[in-house]
């Protein structure tokens, strides 16, 4: 087989066979096929697209390019949740204990975050003593016994995707539904769960700016998952404004605790229920999505979800007292209000820009090497559709530096007040 023939085949709109796709990904991973040929192929895929079969084959070829996680020692159906990335997205912190409270195994392998705020691990580490450096055996044991554990990322997962994603980034070939869906799904499948629930975000703060594109991506990922034997469902959700009120690590832990108590922000709660019911259904703990949702609401009402969160913290060395006393979480030195400059209704809160403001405070990493400050971040006091009076606080800045003019200006530039506006739709649909 010659790579040049395969590039020409795709360029002319042909369909690559399973063997051809395996040849390309194996050759590329080993360094036998050069970047320039793979970038030409990526561009051909960008224009000519791939069939569902080709996408599934590409996904599995990337899965097999490196290590895969074996979760077979963990009993039950393992369901993973993945978000395509948002600002102030506290859902994982809520969903992990919520679903585990229904005896569904949550075996989470997580990384550190880059961008607006930290990843799930960073957030959890704002709880004193909590750590994810546990042995594999202990991880398996914890999940079997307590249904929940988080471990830091290990192993060399999907090296082909790492290489290809970096190449696409500099060759104008990121925005292909075929390439994005296989990239994301390869990572989820290598991580070893039996079923996958996807939260595909749309809006200013998201990768997919329009609902149409988000739906197309959701359909592509769901069919890849189902085609390779991993039951997959998706929710398409709004990311035009940040989710919930909190953006920042310990602030989001507090927000997750509130939500597990049934006292969280409405949008965060609604999204957690929408994703959670798919997880419960895919884990075969309920016969319908409606029944699944009722079960989730019940463990919030009766306190089992909150109890599970405490148990989870204790198991991994953390101080569970933070659940009843969130003031024990890291606190920022300065709380600075951002008063509205006029009367009106909040019409826009540009999610990604507000996320960047939180990063400037130190809540997120600008580069992999940056240190993050777990205490800092932003609390939104208003969301889109809320009335506001001149002088009323739009946002509370939690900072560890006195001068926050840069952050304040960025917030003013990205929160628009108008005569009237309505709260945006939160959930645009589900794909099953
Ligand atoms: N995120 C990924 O992991 N891969 C893509 O191709 C795009 C976004
Ligand atoms: Ca939030």
3D architecture notes:
The relative contact order is 0.14. The chain has helices at residues 3-11, 18-30, 35-48, 52-63, 91-100, 120-124, 136-146, 159-169, 177-190, 211-227, 249-260, 266-282, 289-301, 304-315, 351-361, 405-414, and strands at 79-83, 106-110, 148-152, 195-202, 231-238, 246-247, 334-339, 344-349, 377-380, 387-388, 393-399, 415-418, 427-431. It is globular. It is of the alpha/beta class. The two termini are 38 Å apart. 44% of the residues lie in helices and 16% in strands. The protein has 16 helices and 13 strands. A 4-stranded mixed β-sheet has the order 1-4-5-13, sandwiched between helices. A 4-stranded antiparallel β-sheet has the order 6-9-11-7, sandwiched between helices. Helix 4 packs across helix 9, helix 4 (52-63) crosses helix 10 (211-227) and helix 15 (351-361) runs antiparallel to helix 16. The structure holds uracil and calcium ion. Calcium ion (CA) binds next to strand 6 and helix 11. The site of uracil has 6 residues, from helix 9.
